[in-house]
């Protein structure tokens, strides 16, 4: 029996995540999806995920291709393998040929695990989605502060109209009008 392991944050779950799990399942008999714990993501990527671990694990556990979810609590994939053995490790091909990917392949080869790469979905990524979420949050926070500032100035109706007009003006157009 071929046991496959597909690790990921699976934050802001999207089509690329679904595809790697689908392709992984096509290449093994039993698929374990390793969902990386919030603390490990903060340690390795420098930020916590948008969606907490329990919710990400619940989402991934309901994907038909996944036979089991394992929550990763260490950044060391060999340690993960010792805790939850598998025969094949699945990874996006953005790692293929990189120093990290070559080191991963070497370490896994020492314990008899092969690394199988799948095309990385560049047009959809959690990093891009997170940037959009961050921008939307920043815009919301700015609007709240602008309203608060307008209230402090006392002419709320005028300042709300200015805020609304600027929100409808394409980026750069306001600067062009000012010059």
Keywords:
179 residues; alpha/beta; five-stranded parallel β-sheet; 8 helices; 16% strand; elongated; nucleotidyltransferase activity; Cyt_trans-like; Cytidyltransferase; Archaeal_FAD_synthase; transferase
Name the helix and strand elements from N-terminus to C-terminus, one letter apiece. Answer: EHEHHEHEHEHHH
Structural class per helix/strand content?
alpha/beta
Q: In the CATH hierarchy, what is the class of the largest domain?
A: Alpha Beta
Q: Which percent range describes the beta-strand content? A: 15-25%
Apparent shape: elongated
- Uncertain regions spanning at least 5 consecutive residues: 172-179
Rg measurement, Å:
22 Å
> Major β-sheet, in short?
5 strands, parallel
Mean pLDDT: 84
- Estimate percent helicity: 40-55%
Contiguous helical run count: 8
| Overall structural domain count | 2
CATH architecture tag of the largest domain = 3-Layer(aba) Sandwich
Give the strand order, joined by hyphens, for the main sheet. 3-2-1-4-5
Task: Tell me the CATH topology of the largest domain.
Answer: Rossmann fold
Distance between the termini: 70 Å
CATH superfamily of the largest domain: HUPs
Beta strand count: 5
Organism: Rothia dentocariosa
Keywords: Nucleotidyltransferase, Transferase
GO molecular function: nucleotidyltransferase activity
Domain Cytidyltransferase-like: 6-131
Structure, explained:
With 179 residues, the protein is of the alpha/beta class. The protein folds into two domains: 3-121, Rossmann fold, CATH 3.40.50; 127-167. It has eight helices and five strands, in the order βαβααβαβαβααα. The chain has a five-stranded parallel β-sheet with strand order 3-2-1-4-5. Helix 6 (126-153) packs antiparallel against helix 7 (156-168). The radius of gyration is 22 Å and the shape is elongated. The termini are far apart. The relative contact order is 0.14. Mean pLDDT is 84; it is low at 172-179.
């Amino acid at each position: 029996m071929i046991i496959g392991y597909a690790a990921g944050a699976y934050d802001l779950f999207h089509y690329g995540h679904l595809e790697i799990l689908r392709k992984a399942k096509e290449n093994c008999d039993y698929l374990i999806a390793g969902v990386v714990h919030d603390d490990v993501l903060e340690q390795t990527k420098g930020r916590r995920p948008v969606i907490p671990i329990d919710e990400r694990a619940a989402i991934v556990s309901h994907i038909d291709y996944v036979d089991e979810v394992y929550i990763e609590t260490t950044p060391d994939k060999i340690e993960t393998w010792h805790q939850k053995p598998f025969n094949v490790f699945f990874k996006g091909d953005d790692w293929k040929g990189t120093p990290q990917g070559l080191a991963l392949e070497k370490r896994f080869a020492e314990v008899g695990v092969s690394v199988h790469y799948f095309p990385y979905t560049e047009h959809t990524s959690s990093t891009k989605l997170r940037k959009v979420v961050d921008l939307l949050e920043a815009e919301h926070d700015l609007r709240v502060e602008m309203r608060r500032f307008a209230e402090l100035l006392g002419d709320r109706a005028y300042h709300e109209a200015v805020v609304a007009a600027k929100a409808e003006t394409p980026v750069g157009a306001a600067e062009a009008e000012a010059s």
